[in-house]
């Protein structure tokens, strides 16, 4: 008998060595649950990417979620360098906490873009300014993501303001809310910012919170009628999304059409009279006399970048887009109605109207 193992025997030994960890992962999350988490991540991060694109004035794409099980200790072996973590706590609709993990260099680039830079002005070390900036960016991103989850789960979902901090996975206790050996769900996303960045962002969730997300997604589907059996294949990962899921819209339309057929006909509107009415009758005028209106006197406006605003301090001068001596605008409920000049009445400022704005002309000039 030969002492050399055949390829089949080698493969069998390898499968035997890998089976404990694989079965352990499968015992924590099933394939359907992993697919569901990937689906949730794809939808929520797709919305968040749109928000970040507006904030950075660069196209942001966050896609391809990969779901697996890990621990803080394992992350310490994989990532010995410090990262930036953003803590997100859900306060309504869902109960739980998760961490968004980004590379320090990525945070510096995002901060520079938020300040109006081109992404090249990157500081050597992470400062409070970087943490504050990424906290605000994640606040807007996760806020829009929570809106998507609210629509998906059909209930209100709110978060507390995210908190950003530097995390080192090699520390004995990197994050108080997670034990070092506690199994965690890791969802890794690929992140691209224009032509400036191709990187990865991670999301870490406790197992209980991950299962709560899955139950909310699959639990809503479980309420379907008996004559419409659920199929496991319905929980699949989507490509990058830019709008609502068309299949969801179509399902709603099909269900509505099957339940009720409505007769429709074109609506015929009467021709509107372009001339404004002369005057409301006295009895009708009395009905609206006590309605409060907000009157605003606008001295002028200007536009500044985030960088300009952060540089403001005591003694700073802001130049407005209105010339000295030029009439100021008088607005009622945000609508321009007149122009005037500033006067002083006793110890208060006032305004004297010098021109009423013709509303017909104002509409035509918009």
From TrEMBL:
Q: What Pfam families does the record point to?
A: CheC, FliMN_C
Location in or out of the cell: Cell membrane
| Membrane association type | Peripheral membrane protein
User: What UniProt keywords apply to this chain's record, in alphabetical order?
Assistant: Cell membrane, Chemotaxis, Flagellar rotation, Membrane
Q: What residues does the Flagellar motor switch protein FliN-like C-terminal domain cover? A: 287-357
User: What family does the entry list?
Assistant: Belongs to the FliN/MopA/SpaO family.
Output the NCBIfam families linked to this UniProt entry: fliN, PRK08119.1
Q: What is this protein called?
A: CheC, inhibitor of MCP methylation / FliN fusion protein
Source species: Mahella australiensis (strain DSM 15567 / CIP 107919 / 50-1 BON)
């Amino acid at each position: 008998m030969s002492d050399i193992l055949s390829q089949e025997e080698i493969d069998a030994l390898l499968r035997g060595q890998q089976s404990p960890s694989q079965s352990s992962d499968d015992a924590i999350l099933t394939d359907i649950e992993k697919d569901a988490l990937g689906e949730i991540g794809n939808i929520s991060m797709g919305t968040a990417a749109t928000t970040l694109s507006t904030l950075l004035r660069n196209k942001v794409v966050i896609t391809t979620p990969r779901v697996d099980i890990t621990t803080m200790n394992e992350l310490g072996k994989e990532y010995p360098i410090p990262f930036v973590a953003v803590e997100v706590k859900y306060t309504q609709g869902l109960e739980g906490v998760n961490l968004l993990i980004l590379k320090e260099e990525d945070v510096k680039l995002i901060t520079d873009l938020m300040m109006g830079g081109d992404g090249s002005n990157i500081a050597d070390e992470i400062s409070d300014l970087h943490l504050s900036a990424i906290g605000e960016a994640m606040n807007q991103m996760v806020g829009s993501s929570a809106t998507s989850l609210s629509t998906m789960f059909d209930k209100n979902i709110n978060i507390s303001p995210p908190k950003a901090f530097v995390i080192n996975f090699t520390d004995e206790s990197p994050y108080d809310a997670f034990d070092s050996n506690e199994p965690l769900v890791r969802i890794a996303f690929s992140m691209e910012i224009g032509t400036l960045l191709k990187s990865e962002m991670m999301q870490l969730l406790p197992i209980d919170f991950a299962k709560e997300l899955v139950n909310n997604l699959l639990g809503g589907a479980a309420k379907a009628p008996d004559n419409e059996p659920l199929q496991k294949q319905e929980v699949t990962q989507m490509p990058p999304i830019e709008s609502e899921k068309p299949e969801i819209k179509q399902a709603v339309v099909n269900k509505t059409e099957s339940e009720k057929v409505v007769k429709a006909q074109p609506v015929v509107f009467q021709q509107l009279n372009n001339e404004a009415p002369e005057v409301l009758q006295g009895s009708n005028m009395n009905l609206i006399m006590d309605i409060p209106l907000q009157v605003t006197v606008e001295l002028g406006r200007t536009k500044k970048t985030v960088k300009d605003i952060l540089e403001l301090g005591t003694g700073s001068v802001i130049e407005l887009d209105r010339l000295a001596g030029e009439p100021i605008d008088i607005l009622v409920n945000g609508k321009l109605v007149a122009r005037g000049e500033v006067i002083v009445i006793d110890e208060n400022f006032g305004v004297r109207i010098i021109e009423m704005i013709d509303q017909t002309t104002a509409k035509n000039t918009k």
